[in-house]
Amino acid sequence: MTIRNKAEILNAVDQASAGDTARKGVDIIAVMVFGVVGAMGAATLGLAFAPRSAEAIPSFARQTGQPCATCHTAFPQLTPFGRRFKLGGYTMGGGKSITEAPPIAAMLLPTFTKTKVRQDSPPTNPDGYPIAHTNDNFVMQQASLFYGGQIYGNLGAFVQGTYDKASQHTYLDNTDIRYADTTQIGGIDVLYGLDVNNGPTVQDVWNTTPAWGFPFVASTLAPAFSPPQTQIENGFAGRSVGTGAYVFLKDMLYLEASAYNNLSKGELNALGQPCANNSDYVQNVQAWAAQNYPPNQPYSIACPSNSLASASPYWRVALEPNWGDHSLMIGAFGFYPQVLPGRVMGYGVDSYRDIGFDAQYQYNGDMNSVTIRVSRISEMQNLRATYAQGVAAQAISALGVVNAFGLPPITGNASSNAINYLTSFHASAEYVWDHKISGTVGYFSVHGSPDNLLYGNALLNPVPGGAAFGQPDGNGLIFDAAYMPFSKGSPGPYPWGNAKIGLSYTHYLSLFGGTTNFDGLGTYYNGSSWRSHTATDNNTLFLYTWIAF
Prior knowledge:
The chain is an alpha+beta fold and 549 residues long. The chain has helices at 6-18, 28-43, 58-64, 68-71, 80-87, 231-234, 265-270, 279-292, 384-399, and strands at residues 72-74, 77-78, 104-115, 137-152, 155-164, 169-185, 188-197, 240-249, 253-262, 307-308, 312-319, 322-323, 326-335, 338-340, 350-364, 368-382, 419-433, 437-448, 474-483, 498-510, 524-525, 530-531, 540-548.
């Protein structure tokens, strides 16, 4: 039976805090274990993250004794029960114990990607998928191994390691480690917890925030053209570690405060993050390789990345009343990163202020489920370091300054404005029949300050893949349909397996402020015809099979 009503949810939360045995007070051993994990996380732990890679894993079903349909309308979209299972630290029992069935699971994601117009070149870097084509790409996009469930007492985790075939590297993916318990304060029921995670909103339980928002899965071989994103959406997914605390009051009000810290280049490299070195290093490696490798022989280089200059605060508040089969969430969140662009020192830091507002309505009936999601993120960008690097680059060029390799030292970043603004909006509606067939329609848009250097201006500063007139604006639609045959249990001796066969289509309405010739590169020959880049050229058909076992 699917657990849905409030009494059953509260009972499940009590089970999550109690585990398989009655406990009073705080589990001191678990707190000590979490303290060690948290200290390691804040100091040295690197948690790499792949956006839009959310999973429902069989180890949770084995541990709870519940089918996937209890926690998900259509995975990975969570139900009220699923949200409370995560808030409770992934520790609720009711099924097989950790000794009977270790909380290990795996996932495969074979995919097919087709764009409306063939891409100008195969959609990978030189070290990536070696047989990618300009169109019609089949690839085992992802293979993942999970630890999902209780570690000890009230301490649980969701940890994912992933091999990405398109980029051909293995890394630590979505990771969320938490300790949770319940108590009463002044007669008010309180669920509280401590959390270590790998990026802002990875710890969130609603499907409106960037880490778990729609689309839940996307092609890694789709065209590179896409609107810019705010820092909380993609700025430090995989290059930071967050630690924080949260409370859930009266099964309704959620409050959280966290801080995100930087990871060193060595830590990022050790955990499979390929973009872990600054621009000077990249440039010097390229210069050295050009001098020491035979002509036309490929060689590997690192790629640049930004870093956090200091601890960056994050907060979250959400109110979710539940009545019968209905739930409604209204919330807000904020992220304030101090950024060292390109890891280049000496020019100060950029400061960002990301403020998001989100809402989610969900009806979760026996046969029909409806979820409506809306989010809006407003970002203020104080780009004093990026702007200063651009000014320095002009001076370096004018003075003819060079390094030991005879190349000008890289500053790597530039903007026309010291202050910019960017706004991102997402909305989607999902219908699910009997936890087996789902259909979703989504809309996305971004708009912000024009910046000829940051986004490119074909007339003043040509940037491949950039804008015709320095505009970040873009919008589009996403359609997704899927079939999940095993949401209520798979047949045979292993009833915990799951699968999702889906078809997704992304339709771009505009990119970088335009619909035709949006990058300002004019007419070109793409291998089959003469044309200019239009927004709809990037329309992408994506077929995927999500297999978890």
